[in-house]
Amino acid sequence: MQFELDITLLAMTAALAVRFGVLAATLPLLDIRSVPPLWRVALAVSFAAALAPGIVKALPQANVSLAWPSLVMEAVRSLVVGALLGFTINLVFTAVRYAGSIVGMQIGFSIVNSYDPMSNSQVSVISQLYYLLAVLLFFVTGAHQILVAAMFQSCLMVPPFAAGDPVGGAWYLLREFGTVFTLGLKIAAPVVIVLLLVSASMGVVVKTVPQLNVLVVGFPIKIGVGLIAVGLSLVYFREVTTTVMTGMQDSLAEMLLAMH
Question: pTM, whole model, 2 decimals?
Answer without folding.
Answer: 0.81
